[in-house]
Amino acid sequence: MEKTAYMGLPNCYRLNNGMVDVVVTTDIGPRVIRYGFVGKPNLFAEIPSDVVDTDWGAWKPYGGHRFWHAPEAKPRSYSPDNEPVQVSVEGTDTVRLTQTVEPKTGMQKEITVTLASAGTEVTVTHRLTNRGVWTVEAAPWALTIVRGGGTTIIPQEPYISHDERLLPARPLVLWHYTDMTDPRWSFGKKYVRLRSDAAMNSAQKIGVANKQGWAAYLTEQTLFVKRFPYVEGARYPDDGCNCETYTQGSFMEVETVGPLTQIAPEGRVEHVERWYLFENVDAGTSEATLDAAITPLVARTSGHR
User: Residue 18 domain-assigned?
Assistant: First the structure.
């Protein structure tokens, strides 16, 4: 681990195990601004100049990975995170980033990032604490802005014939602006896919109850896999979604969500993602070739749900 400047932010920390490196910010955040193979391009997007104006001030996407609380509302979800965070370095492989209490919501966000000693696995633990005086219903929401030009991949539930199973498999949730005829969507037997396209500036989003415990993003033969839990019987925001994806132009997000929880004063909820990267993934041009390419790779992460 070393202190470094990155994307104009002077007080970042880089975790590096020789195969992949991860960069977290302390001048803003909590944020993970880079994840990639050492010496190769950032898998995450870098958008330092974008600004979203809200009633509570300027919120900046920055790119990379951030932590919100769901359900989405403006300005609550867009509470600015442009101030320094408290940093705690734990050993040689873990860094903990703690935001000051959000002045308008009373919520406090914390991200702990641990890089495996070998390989590509990163464990990201999101903790949301209610520092207010009233119980708040919320869900931890982990959002990653990935580099444009690729495709988000969400697994379908296993195919079971009508003769064997009559009840539905899961919710699939659409937003008012979701257009299922948009060519960026592919709805297959095994996967739902959303492709980013810089020439298409209309927003698209979808959410699902993802019981398979993973979602992925493929760009330039690099596969990014997220592992995350699904809690059977829990109540999730957005009509039951624990996994969502959004695109607009070259912008793409891969999102996961924890259960909605009544968080009492000084109460805390936690949501864990585990990340993996794979190189030289030739997915071909069909769902069948994609499936053949990524199934063995996703299986290598299956012990870490």
Answer: yes
pTM comes to: 0.97
Q: Residue 164 sits in a domain of what CATH number? A: 2.70.98.10
Percent of the chain clearing pLDDT 90 (strictly above): 98
- Any idea what DSSP says for residue 44? B
For 167, the domain range is 2-299
H helices of 149-255, in order, are 237-240
Cβ–Cβ contacts within 10 Å for residue 27, how many?
A: 16
pLDDT of 303 strictly over 80: no
Secondary structure of residue 57 in the 3-state scheme: strand
SS3 call for 231 = coil
**Cα Rg of the chain, angstroms:** 19
Give DSSP secondary structure letters for 117-146. Answer: SSSS-EEEEEEEEE-SSS-EEEEEEEEEEE
Q: Where are the alpha helices (DSSP H) in the chain?
A: 237-240, 287-299
Tell whether the model's pLDDT for residue 34 goes beyond 60: yes
Question: What is the residue whose two structure tokens read 């070998």?
Answer: 118
**What own/partner pairs with CB < 8 Å and gap ≥ 24 does 278-281 have?**
278/120, 278/222, 278/223, 278/225, 279/37, 279/221, 279/222, 280/221, 281/218, 281/221, 281/222, 281/223
Alpha carbons 174 and 172: distance in angstroms, whole number: 7
Report the residue count for the chain.
Answer: 305
> CA-based diameter of the chain, in Å?
61
Residue type, 272: V
304 in any annotated domain = no
Residue 305 lies in a domain: no
Helices (H) and strands (E) in the chain, counts: 2, 24
